[in-house]
């Protein structure tokens, strides 16, 4: 009996040890590099530095050494794990005078809920930082509806990461997300840009900006070494940027020839890129009004930068923008700097907000308040939303489509490429499009705000389709009024017209759905009336093809009263055909 009891205990302990087994994953172990927040990913290879080795001979040693720090780098992954362990090694000091241990050598983990709301993941002190090895443990993670979440892991701001692994229970789902294909915002700056003196990595202003925009931001800030150097501008010019930010004045001296350095740098950028360039004044110090010599220095540097900016404009350089000390508003807030120079978390947020306002002006980013662009994972049982975005961006780089189909699950699960796990209308799709090159930009469970996110994040960039079909709003019926939905669809039309002025836009009325026929008839009438003012926009109506004579959904054409079956798609295709002639 005793031996039997011991055997049972051993079996239980063995089973528990199996449950607790951790499987480890590295973002740089495979052929595809999965580190975000930097250029030259393939060239840099299996390390966490920010600049590739071929630039080493042209960079001063202090600058090169700082480029090995992982400031601004982050990893994205999905998992349903109840606990996440992060283990990594570093080769630099754990802290310096004005940067604490967590900011310099720690990490920050964020996540998203199914509607794209950003969430913070705290480890509540469950971390251990030694001279070379760091461990973080995030436990008790829960997932409503037994779903997975997407996570974003920011790396240390001021230390060099030599190796990194993410561990989850062996039976948990885990997958790294590929590096973004979007054009980045590139920041060239000083210690403040690198992250001094945020309390943790996520509070560096470049990382705050990255979260606010939910877009790639490359941090090329180097403490004490933002000096408008030719070698750095040569490196920057290789990046296919959406915007360059040059924020170097705090590292410049009144003895420096700011005008000539800036002219050379801007000309290098303009030789390869027409991306906007934002020049930024010295932020000023908290003692700006109590130490006259500091005020004199800051004012002189900023006046020289302003003069150089104006001279470049007179010389015909296009796409130059300017951000002033007063617009930054840092030195006027006495809580914004840790030592009269480097930013506290309050200062970092002020930086991010000032940049966000200026970037919105430069990039014409003025989203509708009712439909703020956001990602989602509501249909994750069938597909990965972020991965589909990546696949569409990838396809449009390889194939310049003649036709683009924008929509939700009804479009997504019709047919076409990128392929979906469900395709209910292959025959109708092939008959409709034949040999035309078509990109299916439908996403299951997408709402208007999610389509806005996709358009703002580059899904129509670099292509020139002749036809764009869009059906939007059906998934907003439960959360918005008819008038709001029509406003949202019209906003999408305006954005598409700006992004693709040559395309014929075909707005598809919301398809009928069981129990909502009367409301959708009213909504579609409002939509028809609103779009009548647009002479270059067609309105596509398939309602009669999908309903019975009394206006109800024809159940024989649907799988569930909402999503068409093969016969339903055949009827839809016959209507679409008339708009492709």
TrEMBL record:
<feature type="domain" description="SGNH hydrolase-type esterase N-terminal">
    <location>
        <begin position="23"/>
        <end position="174"/>
    </location>
</feature>
<dbReference type="InterPro" id="IPR032740">
    <property type="entry name" value="GxDLY"/>
</dbReference>
<dbReference type="Pfam" id="PF13472">
    <property type="entry name" value="Lipase_GDSL_2"/>
</dbReference>
<dbReference type="InterPro" id="IPR051532">
    <property type="entry name" value="Ester_Hydrolysis_Enzymes"/>
</dbReference>
<dbReference type="InterPro" id="IPR013830">
    <property type="entry name" value="SGNH_hydro"/>
</dbReference>
<dbReference type="GO" id="GO:0004622">
    <property type="term" value="F:phosphatidylcholine lysophospholipase activity"/>
</dbReference>
<dbReference type="InterPro" id="IPR036514">
    <property type="entry name" value="SGNH_hydro_sf"/>
</dbReference>
<protein>
    <submittedName>
        <fullName>SGNH/GDSL hydrolase family protein</fullName>
    </submittedName>
</protein>
<dbReference type="Pfam" id="PF14607">
    <property type="entry name" value="GxDLY"/>
</dbReference>
<feature type="domain" description="SGNH hydrolase-type esterase">
    <location>
        <begin position="406"/>
        <end position="571"/>
    </location>
</feature>
<feature type="domain" description="SGNH hydrolase-type esterase">
    <location>
        <begin position="182"/>
        <end position="359"/>
    </location>
</feature>
<keyword id="KW-0378">Hydrolase</keyword>
<dbReference type="Pfam" id="PF14606">
    <property type="entry name" value="Lipase_GDSL_3"/>
</dbReference>
